[in-house]
Amino acid sequence: MNRIRRKVLDDMRLSDDDALEMFASNDLLGIGELAALANHRKNGDTVYFNVNRHINYTNLCVNRCTFCAFSRDRGEDGVYTMALNEILTKATEARDAGATEIHMVGGLHPDLPFDFYLEMLAAIKAACPELHIKAFTAVEIDYFAGLAGLSDADVIEAMKEAGLDSMPGGGAEILNPEVRNRICPEKISGQRWLEVIETVHRAGVKTNATMLFGHVERAADRVDHLAQLRALQDRTGGFQAFIPLAFQPDNTRVPEARGVGGVDALKTLAISRLYLDNFQHIKAYWIMLGLKVAQVSLCFGVNDLDGTVVEEKIGHEAGADSPQALSKTQLIEQIRKAGRVPVERDTLYQVVRSY
Ligand code: V47
Ligand code: SF4
After folding, report:
1. What's the rounded Cα separation, in Å, for the pair 318 and 334?
2. What pLDDT does residue 154 have?
3. How far, in Å, from the CA of 7 to the mean position of ligand 1?
4. Among the four 2, 170, 198, 241, which has the fewest Cβ within 10 Å?
5. Distance, CA 320 to ligand 2 centroid (Å)?
6. Cβ(351)–Cβ(344) under 8 Å?
7. Which residues have a Cβ under 8 Å from the Cβ of 110 and sit 6 or more positions away?
8. Secondary structure string (H, E, C) spanning 135-185
9. Per-residue pLDDT, 1
């Protein structure tokens, strides 16, 4: 750890071996302290949150990843697809409640045409022009390109024109092909995920990046995942935040999953902060981490607590025991009680209001 400490103090880039050494180390507090220092250099005492709402327009999905308790097959109990009106009502409610962003992702629907998604974007923009639309993963962009017979770049242009403002970071899971084959054999490859995101960034659209951890992956797979994200960020600078997603096991089909304890969660967030020196923001998604671990992570290199969310299905179908929504007041209180300065941001990290 001493060598790593020196490197961090000298602001030098960490190697893959450094990251592996930290994953193998039991010095959680040492790693956390370094991560807090690295974060403070970038973001001072500020901790960001936003007022947003998630809308998952359909859970019908042709992929059926084994870790996903949210998706359904056609005709299965609980399968749904929202009508455009329902989506619009949710977006309008969000806007009226003070949201600046809607976060929309869904399953890969076998029948909806590409135009449905364009109409959805355009209708939301027309009804709520002040809402930032953060929507679709690289997995969906790939699927739409197939549906529409268009290139990735053309899909992204059409989406931008219809109202897409930025994209979330889902679908990355673990990029390594062996792990991917075990947990989501039908999903696009890790290489393809990176390729689509690179095209999105080159079109001037910002995205986030995620990593699903605590299932069958090894520390080396996590480090490889981080390495590929860091290399892409060096090329494009298009990532805003990195979000490690703690695996929730209920109703999933990954019996050999290792699970995520508090120590692993904090260590993973801290190592992400230290290794991803070209990411400004490390986000603790409280839905998957639980609110208490998310709050403690603010002392382990994290500078973003995500948002109010309002209606959450992906984690809760898989047993997440966090609430589905937090009020702005609750988020502010969590940040204040960690001794930090709460700042409401918009999706592009512009300050809405400091508290
Ligand atoms: O890609 C699916 C994950 C992701 C489970 O960019 C699961 O701001 C845990 O990407 N346990 C979608 N995770 C969610 C996502 C996200 C969430 C919040 C903010 C942002 C952002 C992005 O959820 C999927 C998958 O990796 N997921 N099933 C599960 N059982
Ligand atoms: Fe479908 Fe996404 Fe769930 Fe995989 S994670 S089954 S692609 S909704």
Report:
1. 25
2. 98
3. 32
4. 2
5. 17
6. yes
7. 60, 62, 74
8. ECCHHHHHHHHHHHCCCHHHHHHHHHHHCCCEECCCCCCCCCHHHHHHHCC
9. 86
In sequence order, the β-bridge partners of residue 104 are 55, 135
Q: Which tens digit of pLDDT belongs to each residue from 207-241?
A: 999 999 999 999 999 999 999 999 999 999 999 99
Ligand showing the shortest atom-to-Cα distance for residue 245: 1
The pLDDT score that the predictor gives to residue 260 is 97
Please state, as a whole number, how many other Cβ atoms lie within 10 Å of the Cβ of residue 84: 13
Q: What is the pLDDT of residue 99?
A: 97
Residues 260-299: pLDDT tens digits?
A: 999 999 999 999 999 999 999 999 999 999 999 999 999 9
The total number of residues written for the chain in this structure = 355
Q: Which residues contact 135 (CB under 8 A, 6 or more apart)?
A: 102, 103, 104, 105, 121, 159, 164, 167, 168
Atom index in ligand 2 nearest the CA of residue 106 equals 8
> Which residues are registered as beta bridge partners of 81?
58
| Span from the CA of 5 to the centroid of ligand 1 (angstroms) | 32
pTM beyond cutoff 0.90: yes
Q: Residue 197 corresponds to which amino acid?
A: I
What's the token pair of residue 22? 């930290």
Q: Whose CA is nearest to atom 8 of ligand 2?
A: 107
Distance of CA 303 to the CA centre of its chain: 14
**Is a pLDDT exceeding 90 seen at residue 25?**
yes
Q: Which domains does the chain have, with CATH numbers?
A: 21-339 (3.20.20.70)
Asked whether 268 and 222 are in contact (CB, 8 A), the reply is yes
Share of the chain above pLDDT 70, in %: 100
- Using alpha carbons, list the distances in angstroms from residue 272 to 23, 216, 237, 269, 280: 11, 19, 17, 5, 11
Rg, the chain, Cα only? 19
Average pLDDT of 157-176? 98
User: Which residues form the pocket of ligand 1, taking CB atoms under 6 Å from any ligand atom?
Assistant: 67-69, 168-171, 173, 208, 210, 212, 243, 245, 247-248, 252, 285, 288, 306, 314-315, 318
Residue 168 in contact with ligand 2 by CB distance below 6 A = no
